[in-house]
Amino acid sequence: MANEMKGCKELISEVIEKDLCCLCGACAGSCPYLTSYKGRIVQMDNCTLSDGQCYQYCPRTPVDMDAASLHVFGVPYSEDEMGTFKDVFMARARDSVIKGKAQYGGTVTTLLSVAMEEGLIDSAILTRTADDKIPRPFVARNVSEVLQAAGSNYMACSVLEAYNRLPEDNSDKLAIVGVPCQVLAAVKMKMEPPRHRCSTDNIAFVIGLFCTWALSPPGFHDFLKTSLNLPSVIKFDIPPPPANRFDVYTPSGQVSLSLDQVREYIMPTCAYCLDMTAEFADVSVGSVEGVEGWNTLIVRTDEGARLVEKAKAKGVLEIDALPADKLAHLKEASLIKKKRALKKIINTTGDDKNLLYAGLSPSLSEKLLS
Ligand SMILES: Cc1cc2nc3c(=O)[nH]c(=O)nc-3n(C[C@H](O)[C@H](O)[C@H](O)COP(=O)(O)OP(=O)(O)OC[C@H]3O[C@@H](n4cnc5c(N)ncnc54)[C@H](O)[C@@H]3O)c2cc1C
């Protein structure tokens, strides 16, 4: 499905005004017109370009999944619930400082630190949560800055805007960490390299985070402000079902909010997302339901495998087998997300359906709808 001759105007009318924006940031920061402001993408002035890369890179505009998969893995899009992968493990950091600051096992922070120490990357495009608890894109240039970004903020963040703002002649080797929509946008950028921006050849690897949904920053932040002293919050967490809680860790103890209340702030666009495990990343990292302090680590590409090997060889990453029941559960959760999203896309009417067309093969669509 072609995206030819569509630009900012169509991005605004077809995606942003339809509440389909995921705030990945791929459209922002590279031209004078689009920028993120208070958790939204806003247009500063009218852009008259008829074919904008802003439209092309958006994870909610059509994508040929086979072409994306061929680009990353050299094979067509996998029908496996978790996408193409080489291996899947449980992993966690050995470093107690990383474990103390990280969301779960600190696998992401450890892999980034190893990549920096070994000279595989010079900087990493991450998400850092400031005292006001709003997540912001952040370029970490050393290991201590990588550590500053550890931990999850469940509000969406325009991570790729930080990439777009890098100088065109930037020669740093980069890592990008993002949720599945951000990873998909990064692949779309690699497939059709951006004009007048830092080369996508500089991206050494992409680390994907599992994601079921993200929260809308303006609404959720206002909601949190009413009940919490945000600067004192140490960490947010969503424990696995059946907990149905959103936990907030503060110096005076843990406060739990009902997940039903929190769900009201889920970005509407997440309902159309087919990807729970960031299928186009070099490695993907999530929790292991029911095993505290460990991550699930999916190794997808040769680059990802080499990075994990390096971390193992340095003795900084502990690796164990992922129990079969946890793998089965992960696949089930991933499949549920795909089925739900595809049904939602199918039930969408008119032009919006074409827009959200996910580029799945007829056999996979049929399998998901059965
Ligand atoms: C919105 C969201 C939803 C998630 N949903 C699930 C889920 O359903 N199931 C599951 O198993 N895991 C989910 N995760 C992933 C999980 O929270 C951890 O990020 C992951 O397990 C890695 O843990 P870690 O200890 O290795 O991370 P750490 O070493 O603590 O590193 C975390 C990294 O996450 C990045 N980050 C933080 N906030 C954001 C954000 N808003 N957007 C993009 N990047 C961010 C930071 O740059 C940091 O480098 C979600 C994460 C996010 C951000």
Count up the domains.
2
Radius of gyration, in angstroms, nearest whole number = 19 Å
Beta strand %? 15-25%
Bound molecules: flavin-adenine dinucleotide
Element pattern in H and E: HEEHHEHHEEHHEHEHEEEHEEHEHHH
Q: Which residue ranges are poorly predicted, with pLDDT under 50 across at least 5 consecutive positions?
A: none
What is the spatial order of strands in the main beta sheet? 5-4-6-7-11-12-3-13
Structure description:
By secondary structure, the chain is α+β, with helices and mostly antiparallel strands. It has 2 domains: 8-216 and 266-369, no CATH class; 218-263, Nuclear Transport Factor 2, Chain: A, CATH 3.10.450. It is built from 14 helices and 13 strands. It has helices at residues 8-16, 53-57, 65-73, 96-101, 107-117, 143-148, 159-164, 180-191, 217-227, 259-263, 302-313, 324-346, 350-356, 362-369; strands at 34-37, 40-43, 87-93, 123-129, 135-140, 174-178, 203-209, 235-237, 245-250, 253-258, 283-287, 295-299, 317-321. It has an 8-stranded mixed beta sheet with strand order 5-4-6-7-11-12-3-13. A 3-stranded antiparallel beta sheet has the order 8-9-10. The chain has a two-stranded antiparallel sheet with strand order 1-2. α5 (107-117) packs across α11 (302-313). It is globular.
